[in-house]
Amino acid sequence: MAPSAAQRIVIENCAIATVDAGDTEYASGYLVLAGNRIESVGAGRAPAGLENVVRRIDASGHLATPGLVNTHHHFYQWITRGLATDHNLFNWLVALYPTWARIDERMTYAAAQGSLAMMARGGVTTAMDHHYVFPHGSGDLSGSIIRAAAEMGVRFTLARGSMDRSVKDGGLPPDFAVETLEGALAATEETVKQHHDASFDAMTQVAVAPCSPFSVSTELLRQGAELARRLGVRLHTHGSETVEEEKFCHELFGMGPTDYFESTGWLGEDVWMAHCVHMNDSDIAAFARTGTGVAHCPSSNARLAAGIARVPDMLAAGVPVGLGVDGTASNESGELHTELRNALLINRLGTHREAALNARQALRLGTHGGARVLGRADQIGSLEPGKLADVVLWRMDTLAHASIADPVTALVFGAAAPVTASFVNGEQIVDNGRLVTVDEDAIARSTREEAQRLARIAAQG
């Protein structure tokens, strides 16, 4: 808990959705933030006599929720948005890998700033980036991404990705854009040792994250899992995203993706996978049995015509599920709060129809579900005393939402709600919809310039 001498911020008069185990909500309540922790939360006014109160916020007309947790992204894609817009996954990858293979440190830093800024101003307090493209001689890409997150003040997990299967091996990336098995493992280990923080209030963590079954060797998967467990960090990859991946795994390995992952040590409570669209009953049972998590990316899955993930069945089985933006070359908006709505709507197109998800289940996916997937449910993802002070105030009294009586329904079913304030670790990073830690306009300029520079370099071959 926060020390008694900690400076306190008192937030009052707002609706509160705690997303705790009982889905406790208050029509009008308060939050007390003490240092980087939530000290108390409840109905009515805050307790009298609090010491060291440095700020009081009258949050009338607002809904307070835990900060949103993004569980899958590719920041570098911010500078290749709007390309290959009518492609499925494999054709999209073929079209874009020649361009992605030309990224460098300056581009990656600018793209990370753009991706983080768009999420943060939309209520994300914990972000992650699965970065797996490391062209030869491109500089310190991991360090540039971590620096961008630190400057913005967002809690962050870098999933240090890798690929060792290039065109010459039957893969998709150009030969100069992949690493060797030994090089990928060594660089990943160095990134973990240099940047991973295992403490309760860590702002930066690192996961081991070979890209996908069709872009890495079996040995990279197997040894990557061994490396992660030796270092005590989590594992992340893409899984069961398309029917083509299913076919690939059967042809090459004689089994489906889930069985293949299990054979290489890639199921467990320390693992989460992106997409998991094409999962049969036995796949879902295996994830539930092992506690393997899923990053559900509804907009990207629709953009690339991958299909509808069986999220209601996963939740019913006990599979941990969070939400992901995915890379902004397949979800150009780059905003996680729109994924609350899209997850609900798209899943209602599936077999469960109107019973697939409700508003509170969608909010849980984007908060506590994401925290669970990242292995941080004891620290973030709900508004409870002792947890880290990652809190968002959504304005619900404007034209967009004022006539919807239930604020959680308004947040999920309605238009994207304005963020009046967002706190990470007790520090405010958004004020009235604008980032306070970085210059949004400067980021817009730099991302545009780096996108243009990458396009010129790629055109030159």
TrEMBL record:
The keyword Metal-binding applies. One of its GO terms (molecular function) is metal ion binding. Keywords: Hydrolase, Metal-binding, Zinc. It holds the Pfam family Amidohydro_1. Transmembrane segments: none annotated. The keyword Hydrolase applies. InterPro entries: Amidohydro-rel, Metal-dep_hydrolase_composite, Metal_Hydrolase, MTA/SAH_deaminase. Residues 64-426 form the Amidohydrolase-related domain. PANTHER family: AMIDOHYDROLASE-RELATED DOMAIN-CONTAINING PROTEIN, AMINOHYDROLASE SSNA-RELATED. This is 8-oxoguanine deaminase.
